[in-house]
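A quick aside before the break. I want you to see a complete sequence-to-structure record at least once, exactly as it would be stored in a machine-readable document. Don't worry about memorizing anything.
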Amino acid sequence: MQPRLSYNPAVVVGRQSWDGFAMNGSTTNGDLLLAASAEGWYEPRWYALKTRSRHEKRVRDQLLQRDIDTFLPLCETWRQWKDRKKKVELPLFPGYCFARFPLIERFRVLNVLGVADLVSINGRSEPVHEDELRAIQHLVSTKLHFDPHPFLEEGMDVEVIRGPLAGVRGKLLRKDRVTRLVLAVTLVRQSAVVEIHPADVVPV
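That is the input. The structure line, written in tokens, reads:
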């Protein structure tokens, strides 16, 4: 276990650049910016990890061995071989795994075999929207059937008001006279879809 560094924003001075955070401690506003940015480095948040092909479960297992909070959503599907048919669990979002850690400890995560990189925006490591991730966690905890689904940028935002997904928000999709709820993780542009009754959702 690597030692955690102590941090006191009152005694940090000068200019530094950490993973895209430019900070200046020479003014009052700079001090506030420095403190706010540094707090983000020490606060555990959920990040999306880009993994090598077919390394999602291996990455999850290694992160758990390092006592790092990890979430790998899986979905069940049938696979047909020549002589048999078997139900298997596959990653819901192929090529991605989620981990919760302070950014200051990111190298403990990046050093895991199979991790390619942290998902970032404009070169800055970006945490996942936690409400989106909670919705996916809620979905996989149910016994509902769900599948991967292409990411949708447009669609009606709805909230489920009854049933095992009550309180979960997503986007409404209709196809072949069947109503479906799409749950998206915007940062990695991945989605899951589950059938739902129209009377069980309301616009938000």
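Two observations worth writing down. Residues 129-204 form a domain with the SH3 type barrels. fold (CATH 2.30.30). The two ends are 44 Å apart (CA to CA). We'll return to this after the break.
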